[in-house]
Amino acid sequence: MSRSRSRRFSPLRRLLSFPLLRTGRTREEAFPSAGELLFELAGHNPENLLFGRFGPEEIRERIRAAGILDGLARRGYREPLLALECEDPQDQRICLYAGSKSRDRLLLEVRVQIAAFRPGKPIGPFSEESVFRMLLIHWLLLSDPERPFSIDRPRLPGQERPGLGLLSECLSLFRGIGREFPLDGVLDVPDHFHTALFYSRKFRFLDPHAEGRFQAMARGLKGIPLALASEAVQEGCLADRATGLPILWEPAEQVMPLRDPLRRYLRSPEYRLACSEAGSGLEAAVDWDRYREKTAAKEGPGKYP
């Protein structure tokens, strides 16, 4: 066997080809730990470390660096209790609690996974089989356990409690973790219009047609209070002015790119042009008659002013 062939198929090179093991390490950290190997190769995580690598103090330091602890302190929640639930490689959980570990004292819940992602169809320069290593956000909850909803802080679709206004800090946490491995990006599939709008400060839909459609929806809802706008979308009351047909929410992959070629594509003139073309023929507006009918059928006034 030739030397080049033996290097290519050596066990060590195979190990380091796994997503969590090919990381931006220093020379002193060149080899993965036993915990990381168990996590990546066997799906075992006996030490309950995030991704088989980060323990509670390391996670707390990253949460602090992202500004989350300072943000909670400003809202009266100092020294939150941190809990990790990382046994399942496909469901890595970080939770912060106000005082006691109970659902009614939950401040933050993150459920993430590092995995290979394929678009499933050709998008820009990428084929349906292109592979990106992504931090997948399965669930992100920010919850204020002590403050009620109000006129100034109305309930958004899907909310049980008011949020904390710390999404930007959470995205900084995800970006930092993604760069440590390093990954191609952070991926979320928003289930509500308002979620996509919040994420759109840093994220773009991978498919430019989905991004163009979202931008057209946002234009049509501009000036409408967010809780009302998101409820109108959820109830199927956002319509195409030209046809009168409802514009329904269609979940799709929204991405914060961390490195090329994904970052280059989402910033490219090609991507922007495709977004513009996808949204140019769609003029969205709320059908208030339909909204009143929907809310009356639910025996409630809805959020119609």
For the largest beta sheet, what order do the strands appear in spatially? Answer: 1-2-3-4-5-8-6
Radius of gyration: 22 Å
Number of strands: 9
Continuous helix count:
12
Uncertain regions: pLDDT < 50 for 5+ in a row? 1-17
Kindly, what is the distance between the CA atoms of the first and last residues, rounded to a whole number of angstroms? 77 Å
The amount of helix comes to 25-40%
Order of helices and strands: HHHHHEEEEHEHEHHEEHHEH
Q: Beta-strand percentage?
A: 15-25%
Biggest β-sheet strands, sense, barrel: 7 strands, mixed
* Spatial shape: globular
Q: Which structural class do the helices and strands define?
A: alpha+beta
What's the rounded overall pLDDT mean? 88
Structure, described:
The structure is a single chain. This protein is of the alpha+beta class and 305 residues long. The protein is built from twelve helices and nine strands. The strands form two sheets. The protein has a seven-stranded mixed sheet. Strands 7-9 form a two-stranded antiparallel ribbon. Residues 1-17 have low confidence and may be disordered.
